[in-house]
Amino acid sequence: MSKRTGGKSTTAEVKTVVEEKELAARWLVIESDPSKANVFIDGKLAGRTPFHRKYEEGEYTYRIEKSRYHNKAGKITLKGEKKSLQIELKPNFGDIQVTSVPEEGMMIFLDGENTGKETPATLNEISSGEHTLQLQSRWYQPQTKKVTVKEEQTTAADFKMEPAFANITVQTQPEMRMSFQPQSRRKFMWMETKRASPL
To answer: What is the CATH number of domain 93-160?
Structure first.
């Protein structure tokens, strides 16, 4: 660009300066019960609860996930003040109460895995749906059942065990009767009777 001043010509350069507009950012706070749940923002994993992060103003989707709980999802709009969400996750599990007769102390297996518990016992926080229970013992035949666990409920599983032992009677001469019976899976009792000789 040229300009004549007092008979002299001068040259000037014009520059265009573009200033970026500062975008407003707002705090997004998400807390859940129970905590340590995964937080997804617009379909991407962003962290775990309790969650605090700044985002540009606008609309977002969120999803909260935690094992053995139902997911929680929705939309939020960030504008003005910070946005806080309090999320209560609904359990997706129940309990199983396991008993056995005629004896207790049976080892409990759930879906093929030893639970480390013996009857009577309650298995806590088992995921909803169908499961396989099995009781095992040295003195009884293994027994298996299918059970359906419903969320936030206790399912009863009662087992009637079949013995894996027999009674034995021994006859002797002179007449003497000896018998023994397992009184439990850990103890035996020995009984002996003898007929008196006539006078």
So the answer is: 2.60.40.10
CB 120 within 8 A of CB 154: no
- Smallest CA-to-CA distance from 76 within 50, 90, 55 is with 55
Nearby residues of 192 by Cβ (< 8 Å), 6 or more positions away: 176, 177, 178
pLDDT at 122 over 90: yes
Average pLDDT over residues 80-97: 95
Fold of 25-88: Immunoglobulin-like (2.60.40)
Q: Model-level pTM? A: 0.65
Number of other residues whose CB lies within 10 A of the CB of residue 161: 21
Work out the pLDDT band at 190, boundaries 50, 70, 90: very low
